[in-house]
Amino acid sequence: MRKIVFSTIMIVFISAMVSADPWKLNLNANLSTSLNTYSDNWIGGEAGSFTWGSQFLGIAERKLSEKINTKTTLKLQFGQTEAQNKETKNWSVPQKSTDLIDGEELLRFITGKWADPFISARAISQFVDGSDSLKKRYVNPVEITEAIGMSRSLKKNELIDWSTRLGGAARQYIDRHKLDAATQTRSNNVTDDGGVEMDMNLNAMNKAKSISLLSDLRVYEALVSSKADEAKGTDSSDYWRYPHVKWENTLTLTLAKYLMLNVSAYAYYDKNIKDDARLKETLAAGFTYTFTK
Q1: Contact criterion met (CB below 8 Å) for 13 and 41
Q2: What total of structural domains would you count in the chain?
Q3: Facing residues of 146 across strands?
Q4: CB atoms near residue 247 (< 10 Å)
Q5: Mean pLDDT to the nearest integer, 213-237
Q6: Strand partners, 266
Q7: Mean pLDDT, to the nearest integer, of 32-41?
């Protein structure tokens, strides 16, 4: 499946370069900051803090022919937090508060029927991996998913783009330079699995384009895994069978041309990492820039 997906994408990518149809672009970048400081004679144990976060979302879509449509999506997020010691008043080194690299290429073959075939490739990572205190690793780990199946547009107009996809998928999870605690050696840890993936995307805004909502629900169920034999006889022998769920939601209110209020809510479930769902909520205000063509 991996060879089929990448070969098809490369052929269509070359075709896109010579296509006469223009690109439809939707770019949004924003930056938010927060700073709290106190004088040395303040009582009550208060401490200062500084937080900043940045986000970029880019969507490029093009109709290559009457039957083929390509859509490229890139999401980037990064932010840090610094805290002040209550006693010494010294500031800590910046700690990562958000970090994401998420890129996807989607090819949809338009049939005019109830659903359309699709091929997609998606890579998810982060800028800095701080899980290992002995070694800082960049763009690690990397999760690559190739999928092929059927897609359906539930509703699409100038204000709403709501679609869903279902198909077979192959996934590679690559953890580079991972430390083996027993041997104290490092090696690349690669997990290959295959299964079924469902993806639902919603991009909606009001008529004034001052309020926008982005929602992405992704459920991946592995049916086979290269780590299945290694896990036999352990407490985590069947963890790879559990569904992997990612649900990301972002509501943005544009207060003025370059000012925005952003509310984000994320829910992740991966039993290999944690038994319970991991939740994250963010409220941010700052500067924004939007470009649409």
Answers
A1: no
A2: 1
A3: 121, 170
A4: 17
A5: 87
A6: 248, 280
A7: 80
Q: Does pLDDT of 22 surpass 60? A: yes
Amino acid, single-letter form, for residue 44: G
Give the structural domain span for 226.
2-292
Q: 158 falls in which pLDDT band (50, 70, 90)?
A: confident
What CATH number has the domain bearing residue 253?
2.40.230
pLDDT higher than threshold 60 for residue 223: yes
pLDDT of residue 93 exceeding 80: yes
How far apart are alpha carbons 116 and 156 in whole angstroms?
Answer: 14
CB environment 21-51: b (16+ within 10 A), e (fewer): eeeeebebebbbeeeeeeeeeeeeeebbebb
Written as six digits, the tokens of 190 are 């690669």
Cα–Cα nearest to 247, from 210, 275, 272, 281: 281
Instruction: Please tell me the pTM assigned to this model.
Output: 0.88
Place of tokens 């990492």: 273
3-class DSSP assignment, residue 54: strand
H helices of the chain, where? 2-18, 228-231
In 206-277, DSSP assigns E strands to 211-225, 244-254, 259-269
At residue 237 the predicted structure's pLDDT band, cuts being 50, 70 and 90, is: confident
Q: CA-CA distance, 97 to 52, in Å (whole number)?
A: 9
Local confidence band at 3 (pLDDT 50, 70, 90 cut-offs): low
HSE-up of residue 94 (Cα within 13 Å, Cβ side): 11
Q: How far apart are CA 100 and CA 18, in angstroms?
A: 32
Collapsing DSSP to helix, strand or coil, 144 comes out as strand
Torsion sign across C-alpha atoms 107, 112, 117, 123: positive
* C-alpha to C-alpha distance for 293 and 228, rounded to whole angstroms: 47
